[in-house]
Hints:
The complex is a heterodimer.
Chain A: H1 20-40, H2 46-68, H3 71-102, H4 106-112, H5 119-127, H6 129-145, H7 153-181, H8 185-201, H9 214-222, H10 224-238, H11 243-269
Chain B: E1 16-27, E2 30-41, E3 45-49, H1 56-63, E4 71-76, E5 79-80, H2 85-91, E6 92-95, H3 107-117, H4 122-135, H5 151-162, E7 169-173, H6 181-196, E8 200-205, H7 208-214, E9 217-222, E10 225-231, H8 232-239, E11 242-248, H9 254-265, E12 270-272, E13 277-282, H10 287-297, E14 302-308, H11 312-320, H12 331-342
Helix pairs in contact in B: 3-4, 8-11, 9-10
Amino acid sequence: xxxxxxxxxxxxxxxxxxxxxxxxxxxxxxxxxxxxxxxxxxxxxxxxxxxxxxxxxxxxxxxxxxxxxxxxxxxxxxxxxxxxxxxxxxxxxxxxxxxxxxxxxxxxxxxxxxxxxxxxxxxxxxxxxxxxxxxxxxxxxxxxxxxxxxxxxxxxxxxxxxxxxxxxxxxxxxxxxxxxxxxxxxxxxxxxxxxxxxxxxxxxxxxxxxxxxxxxxxxxxxxxxxxxxxxxxxxxxxxxxxxxxxxxxxxxxxxxxxxxxxxxxxxxxxx
Amino acid sequence: xxxxxxxxxxxxxxxxxxxxxxxxxxxxxxxxxxxxxxxxxxxxxxxxxxxxxxxxxxxxxxxxxxxxxxxxxxxxxxxxxxxxxxxxxxxxxxxxxxxxxxxxxxxxxxxxxxxxxxxxxxxxxxxxxxxxxxxxxxxxxxxxxxxxxxxxxxxxxxxxxxxxxxxxxxxxxxxxxxxxxxxxxxxxxxxxxxxxxxxxxxxxxxxxxxxxxxxxxxxxxxxxxxxxxxxxxxxxxxxxxxxxxxxxxxxxxxxxxxxxxxxxxxxxxxxxxxxxxxxxxxxxxxxxxxxxxxxxxxxxxxxxxxxxxxxxxxxxxxxxxxxxxxxxxxxxxxxxxxxxxxx
Lengths: 271, 343
């Protein structure tokens, strides 16, 4: 070992806290790790590749005739709905993978390093936005192939896509929390599905709210997923930014504000 | 003991790298660590010796801020592991029993990511990674995914990762368990070089041999307690310099042979049930001659006899009065106790 390489590490100033800047840098490095992992194991992108294609085809042709009379006029309703549903479902995988990842020895090293405690979690979640982006693009492309021509224009569709990705990232904190507290990866999947199914199906994503019984309408209307779907429809179909966008963003912020600290605390408490 | 109240004690002058008092950790009903005290002098290699499940890993994990203490206190260079964990993390490197590196990434990627996390710039991280890979003889495998790495390569990479920040204290949890003899010797060389550059090393091991080769001082730990502590020489003196292994041809002679061994060597012996093998610590290899004559006189024929370096078994036999115990007492041990009562 050369003498220059083994200069004592104690010359660095010692401090018992991590600055915000360091937390961000650490999280970005961890996100880079996540991207490298995806590049090394591209098979983990199967779900975000095939799910958008299959779901979009399936739901459009099954429900199209019944709900809107024909497939073509159902597309402006279903594509935003299916987009939200697909991308948010994808975010479950974040929790499952985090659970699997945490069982590996490398997380011990992350814990023993003087880095921000939130970084391994935030980084993993950040890297997964690439998955949401893939799912988003594929769903929209699928819609386009089937004849969906959003009237809001490309720029507004892009904003809508970004909104969906941001919200999925926020929601992935919920699944990350399950990932940290659950004992096995498969139980993460189980709990997450139970949470996700009512949220995505009891919304306006697939059918008009008016067709539902009153008590159900009440829930559907307060469901944040409904607001996200409405926001995406407004943007993509009319090019307008309505109150739903604001409500959705506030909802996303609340989820992160609640679940990020909870998750980090649970993570630190583990073993 | 240096009781430093400064925010930043001069580490080079700090006498103790580790001071632990009454460490305690319970998992369910199992008290894994039961009041462990450790003092590790800065700049030394300290060995924690014990069988599987003795509490070695748990102790290290507590000292490395990976596990909460149930009771007791621990300081690393004067910094409390509970109150100032983030400072402690800046002073330590941890190499776990199971390689704590990223399986799905390459060696270079692993080291670059750890370097970046430790605050090195992009170019600096690349240089550091290349330098460490060279140092640990991993340059050729740098780009391969870790899945194809051998156990020894993984351990070396793991140790390399612990050295990025040049921490003054390095924890090595069973650094050579499962390695072949050649790789083991290489690992030992690396550890020795580390200490030459001024690092303090706290290592755990199951092998007395390893502690003997490396450590300045040793703590023997059993069922969560430190049962012996001292320099290697002190410990060896209590164990004897070598150990006798003996097997008789006819199983019915085992008990007689054992009594002769105990009379001649004036120590307690141990019989392993499965092979009928008698083991006993030996202070003086010369006594073998007397023993062989005594056995011949009694007409006991031997199947096998050897004199070896003491194993952990003998250390335990000597220090705790019984062999290495896993969960339930083995047959040999029960017979051992019965024997003790009769004697």
